[in-house]
């Protein structure tokens, strides 16, 4: 009898208990009481001990909690649902009910969060019917729109589009804000057929569009590269009583300029004041950029001057557009002058414009002029951007001026930048190409002190330079440091060391290098093998050369045409 009872599930046994003694009813009462207390005083409410309640929490208990507390205390209930473990994951109906209660309480952002969690935890669920029938009363009018926004939040554009059209057809359309978000997302994705279908559903459902709606539609037409249709659409809207704002006109201006229809853009720009929409800073910037790209820089400058005279204050974007135009045409003096005017006017965001000017000077090799511009700017408190420093350092290294590049590196550190490994490597390599390994080694020590770890390029430049200058022992020491740092040498470093020792008349040490690379790194460098054989054949006896060849064969080297020429030369020298 006891064995039969033990096989009865515990849930069946607890269901036989009176309500007052049933732990499943007790846990619902406990959680609901806690949520009510949390809603009344969030600071003093104690958290629910979920670990203790887990054996008695299931889907039915969650549903009972939502029905009891979700209507009057929806926000604490939502937080409770999000805290339960995945094993008892809340259902779509739970989130939909709470979204309805939160929207009815005008907690729209939290209702959006609830629907967002529904979309995240149940990605395959069709949420619209669940949402429309989650409450015995009519669904709150904001819910379809909030669902569309929640789906867009999770990049489910197709689901958001279908939900919007189905909700509109069901007589519960999303609001204008939700439709606007959907139209903008469809436009960005280039899904223009669906965009106009959503626009038609919006009209059929009687959702009143606003300025953002029309601006999004005009922008979509311009993205379709149909600025002419956009102009016609705008005139149609004006006939219907819609008054385009400056954003609408700027969208059209950008569309015309993007398609190279600059004259149409200029005509529209001239029409704007007559339609009581004065061009703003963005309008001028769009046209100035179009003029610069059409190589009409003088016209762009005249527009800039007229804009300033009209009382508009240029920002960093306006200055950058014109400065870029000057640099593209090689008019660097005017670019520098405008940059100084920009700094003097108090515009703070000068980094991009300054980078453009530096790159323009570096491109044509006017490095001294650029340095003479940068130095006083630093004294005025202007922080040179790291990209500008990188460009200048690279140009100076290409011009074989490593000391100037190193000075710029110090300026960079003083300005609060952290030079990257690539910049240090450029300077190390430049010093090495200038046969100045002492300074190159100093730069390596400096980068290590600033916690920038040298890499293979750093070590190869140093080792190659030292071996070329007859300091192969120092090169070997650098290679040992390289190995200790965790980097593994390759054939190029092996060849540099072997050729260096051979050139210095120490082929025995060169042979040790070859042997070490084979045994320690499994690298068979044919260039090193040939250089060593050539040195032996030129400086040692035929017997020694042939003995070396035997040792090389044991290491796995295979003779090639150059090896054979060296051996033949050694044999002929011996016979002579």
UniProtKB/TrEMBL annotation:
<dbReference type="Pfam" id="PF01535">
    <property type="entry name" value="PPR"/>
</dbReference>
<feature type="repeat" description="PPR">
    <location>
        <begin position="315"/>
        <end position="349"/>
    </location>
</feature>
<feature type="repeat" description="PPR">
    <location>
        <begin position="210"/>
        <end position="244"/>
    </location>
</feature>
<feature type="repeat" description="PPR">
    <location>
        <begin position="385"/>
        <end position="419"/>
    </location>
</feature>
<dbReference type="Pfam" id="PF13041">
    <property type="entry name" value="PPR_2"/>
</dbReference>
<dbReference type="InterPro" id="IPR002885">
    <property type="entry name" value="PPR_rpt"/>
</dbReference>
<protein>
    <recommendedName>
        <fullName>Pentatricopeptide repeat-containing protein</fullName>
    </recommendedName>
</protein>
<feature type="repeat" description="PPR">
    <location>
        <begin position="525"/>
        <end position="559"/>
    </location>
</feature>
<comment type="similarity">
    <text>Belongs to the PPR family. P subfamily.</text>
</comment>
<feature type="repeat" description="PPR">
    <location>
        <begin position="420"/>
        <end position="454"/>
    </location>
</feature>
<feature type="repeat" description="PPR">
    <location>
        <begin position="245"/>
        <end position="279"/>
    </location>
</feature>
<keyword id="KW-0809">Transit peptide</keyword>
<feature type="repeat" description="PPR">
    <location>
        <begin position="280"/>
        <end position="314"/>
    </location>
</feature>
<dbReference type="Pfam" id="PF12854">
    <property type="entry name" value="PPR_1"/>
</dbReference>
<feature type="repeat" description="PPR">
    <location>
        <begin position="175"/>
        <end position="209"/>
    </location>
</feature>
<dbReference type="InterPro" id="IPR011990">
    <property type="entry name" value="TPR-like_helical_dom_sf"/>
</dbReference>
<keyword id="KW-0677">Repeat</keyword>
<feature type="repeat" description="PPR">
    <location>
        <begin position="455"/>
        <end position="489"/>
    </location>
</feature>
């Amino acid at each position: 009898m006891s064995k039969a009872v033990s096989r009865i599930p515990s849930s069946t046994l607890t269901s036989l208990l009176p309500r007052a003694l049933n732990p499943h009813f007790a846990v619902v009462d406990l959680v609901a009481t806690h949520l009510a207390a949390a809603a009344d005083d969030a600071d003093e409410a104690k958290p629910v001990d979920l670990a203790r309640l887990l054996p008695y929490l299931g889907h039915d208990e969650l549903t009972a909690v939502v029905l009891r507390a979700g209507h009057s205390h929806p926000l604490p209930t939502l937080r409770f649902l999000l805290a339960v473990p995945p094993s008892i994951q809340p259902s779509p109906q739970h989130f939909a009910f709470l979204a309805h209660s939160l929207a009815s309480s005008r907690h729209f952002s939290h209702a959006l969060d609830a629907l967002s969690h529904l979309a995240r935890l149940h990605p395959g669920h069709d949420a619209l019917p669940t949402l429309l029938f989650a409450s015995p009363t009519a669904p709150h009018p904001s819910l379809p729109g909030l669902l569309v926004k929640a789906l867009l939040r999770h990049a489910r554009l197709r689901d958001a589009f279908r939900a919007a059209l189905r909700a509109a057809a069901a007589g519960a359309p999303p609001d204008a804000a939700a439709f606007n978000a959907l139209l903008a997302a469809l436009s960005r994705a280039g899904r223009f057929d669906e965009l106009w279908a959503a626009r038609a559903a919006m009209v059929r459902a009687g959702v009143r569009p606003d300025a953002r709606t029309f601006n999004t539609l005009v922008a979509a037409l311009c993205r379709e590269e149909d600025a002419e249709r956009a102009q016609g659409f705008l005139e149609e809207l004006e006939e219907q009583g819609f008054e385009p704002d400056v954003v609408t006109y700027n969208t059209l201006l950008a569309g015309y300029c993007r398609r190279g229809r600059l004259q149409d853009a200029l005509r529209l720009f001239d029409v704007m004041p007559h339609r009581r929409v004065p061009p703003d800073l963005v309008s001028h910037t769009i046209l100035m950029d179009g003029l610069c790209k059409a190589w009409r820089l003088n016209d762009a400058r005249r527009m800039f001057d007229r804009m300033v005279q009209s009382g508009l204050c240029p920002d960093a974007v306006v200055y950058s557009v014109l400065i870029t135009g000057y640099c593209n045409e090689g008019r660097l003096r005017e670019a520098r002058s405008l940059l100084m005017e920009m700094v003097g006017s108090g515009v703070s965001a000068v980094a991009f414009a300054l980078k453009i000017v530096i790159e323009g000077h570096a491109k044509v090799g006017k490095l001294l002029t650029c340095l003479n511009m940068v130095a006083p700017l630093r004294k005025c408190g202007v922080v040179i951007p790291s990209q500008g420093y990188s460009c200048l350092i690279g140009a100076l290294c290409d011009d074989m001026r490593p000391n100037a590049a190193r000075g710029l590196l110090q300026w960079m550190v003083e300005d609060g930048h952290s030079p990257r490994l690539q910049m240090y490597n450029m300077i190390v390599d430049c010093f090495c190409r200038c046969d100045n390994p002492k300074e190159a080694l100093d730069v390596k020590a400096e980068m290590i002190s600033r916690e920038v770890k040298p890499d293979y390029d750093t070590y190869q430049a140093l080792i190659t330079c030292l071996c070329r200058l007859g300091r192969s022992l120092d090169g070997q020491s650098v290679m040992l440091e390289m190995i200790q740092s965790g980097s593994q040498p390759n054939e190029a470093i092996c060849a540099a060391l072997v050729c260096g020792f051979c050139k210095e008349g120490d082929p025995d040490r060169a042979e040790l290098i070859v042997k070490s690379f084979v045994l320690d790194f499994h690298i068979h460098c044919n260039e090193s093998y040939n250089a060593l054989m050539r040195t032996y054949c030129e400086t040692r006896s035929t017997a020694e050369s042939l003995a070396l060849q035997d040792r090389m064969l044991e290491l796995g080297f295979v003779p090639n045409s150059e090896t054979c020429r060296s051996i033949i030369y050694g044999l002929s020298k011996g016979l002579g």
